[in-house]
Amino acid sequence: MSTVDLGGGISRLTSERTVRALVVVAAVVLALDLVRRIYTGSLTLGTLGFYLWNGIVDGLVFGLAGIGLSMTYSILRFANFSHGDLLTTGAFSGWTVAYLIAGAGIADTSSRLLLRADGGAPPGQLDLQILGEPIAILAGLVVAALLTVLIALAIDRVVYRPLRDAGGIPLLIASVGVALALRYFIALVYTSQNRAVTASSPEWSSPVFFWTEGVNVHELTMVVSATVLMVGIHLLLQYTKLGTSMRAMADNRDLALITGIPTERVVRATWMIGAGLAGVAGYLIVLDRGTITINLGWFLLLLIFAAVILGGIGSIYGAIVGALIIGLTINVSLVWIPSDMNEIAAFGLMILVLLVRPQGLFGGVETA
Amino acid sequence: MAALEVADLDAGYGELQVLEGVDMTVEDGEYVSIVGPNGAGKSTVMKSVFGLTTVMGGRITFDGEGITGRRPEEIITTGIGYVPQNDNVFPSLSVRENLEMGAYILEDVPEDRIQRVYGRFPILEERAGQKAGSLSGGQRQMLAMGRALMLDPELLMLDEPSAGLAPDLVSEMFDRIDRINADGTAVLLVEQNAKEALARCDRGYVLVQGQNRYEDSGDALLSDEQVRREFLGG
């Protein structure tokens, strides 16, 4: 008996070591190859800087979206598959408002309300970019957050609250249903057509951005908004009574209940924060991409899950770090592989990390 | 006047009935122990008082007010504090944050009460900024009691506070409970360590298979031939 256990232990140990060794060898080979490419000139520093910047942009927005996913997991205790469609909700509602404001007098109200479902007035005509219509875009951002919060609270009241004690699996399945319902409700209103809604971003050249001639202002907007919101969430969680009670409930829901923490109020706060950030993330993604589609959030959900799991599901800091790793991986991997395969690199990396650290990078270190 | 009065209580979990016609009282400032074999329903009595079980019959009153079937967040406002046996601190919160959560229902953090808990358990002040998950078993138990004392309860219910403690810490723990009681807080204690619990308390109940078996002063139960033979191992 003990020899069998010993054998299992040793083979597990060696396989773990093998994986570790492989990771180290692969990292060294890639790093050397990167140096070689830069030295021979087949990869310019400018291109590498471009990939790194895009990685940070993607990573921060995924992180913003991942915070809510991680929080619903740790506080409501289920994997929320409708989280991606909260991004879509934010994107559509926010850009509708941006269109209503920026397109006043240029396009019909109905066309603006349905976000160009009729193909009318293209975004260039509205000059819908951050420097052209800053107020419309800011108003859209605020509405994206608020409306997504309202929708999430309504869904919680109708769907999740009656299932509160049903366990993680029924809640997960319900959330898949919510995802489909939400997405096709959006399709019903806005049609499922992919369309352009923002004008291309202006460039800003400044010596601060030494690696590039000019930085994309929309991307800069994303980086700044995401960073500010993340710092805000960190302060809220660590230094306010609400934040402390959220961490307490993530730790132990039963104990929170007998301590007198109003658990339903904490659940509402969780939805407000998670959905608000998801709505903003969806809105900002469209600001960068320029186009909007009903599958926006659904297609990103897998990457966001990968980021959150890589970081250690349940930890918001893990979600942010995991998202930055995923963002950097899908962009920097373009040095070696074509862009329609770069997600393979991200998911492959996630698998490798989980083989060595099954609980994720921050798992078991810090909840909520 | 009885502070806590449990009368003819039938209670359990879902369909499963654990308690059958349990009667129990804790007077103001009294120290009462519940002992009995495993599975007798000792913890279930406490959970029922705190609204964590399904009450099927009987009634529970506290200070003359009916609290049968009320929810935990209401019961905590009536002056009952409860320390469950396991997982009774928030591991990722700091020691101080755990205490602050104990006073969640108050408007502001009551600094004087935090200081009073620190005075009672000085080790908690030393570890104030440390995560509760890094504390030893005995320190966790102190933190859990401190958290329950933050609302200055009239009655403190402790579920097996000596469980899992090193033997030399057990009597220290009982001393602390004595002091809490001496300061005027009524104590209801569930214990495996029956001898110690009965030696310390004013009155004790022996619970067997969800029913009252014996009730008397702690000393009388300790010296009762039958109780000794059946429950105290001679």
From TrEMBL, chain A:
Pfam families from the xrefs? BPD_transp_2 (PF02653)
Task: Give the UniProt entry's GO cellular component terms.
Answer: plasma membrane
Q: What are the UniProt keywords, alphabetically? A: Amino-acid transport, Cell inner membrane, Cell membrane, Membrane, Transmembrane, Transmembrane helix, Transport
What's the protein's topology in the membrane? Multi-pass membrane protein
- Entry superkingdom: Archaea
Q: Name one GO biological process term.
A: amino acid transport
UniProt KW Transport keyword: yes
- Where in or outside the cell is it found? Cell membrane
Which residue spans traverse the membrane?
A: 21-39, 51-74, 86-107, 135-155, 167-186, 220-237, 266-286, 292-310, 317-338, 344-365
Q: What does the sequence similarity comment in the record state about its family? A: Belongs to the binding-protein-dependent transport system permease family. LivHM subfamily.
Record's PANTHER family? BRANCHED-CHAIN AMINO ACID TRANSPORT SYSTEM PERMEASE PROTEIN LIVH, HIGH-AFFINITY BRANCHED-CHAIN AMINO ACID TRANSPORT SYSTEM PERMEASE PROTEIN LIVH
What name is this protein filed under?
Branched-chain amino acid ABC transporter permease
Q: What is the lineage of its organism?
A: Archaea, Methanobacteriati, Methanobacteriota, Stenosarchaea group, Halobacteria
TrEMBL record, chain B:
Q: Name one GO biological process term.
A: amino acid transport
A Pfam family it matches: ABC_tran
Q: Which GO terms describe its molecular function?
A: ATP binding
> Residue ranges of the ABC transporter domain?
4-234
Q: Which CDD domains does the record match to this protein? A: ABC_TM1139_LivF_branched (cd03224)
Q: Which InterPro entries match?
A: AAA+_ATPase, ABC_transporter-like_ATP-bd, ABC_transporter-like_CS, BCAA_Transport_ATP-bd_LivF, P-loop_NTPase
Source species, domain of life: Archaea
- Supply the alphabetized keyword list: Amino-acid transport, ATP-binding, Nucleotide-binding, Transport
Family under the similarity heading: Belongs to the ABC transporter superfamily.
Protein name stated in the entry: ABC transporter ATP-binding protein
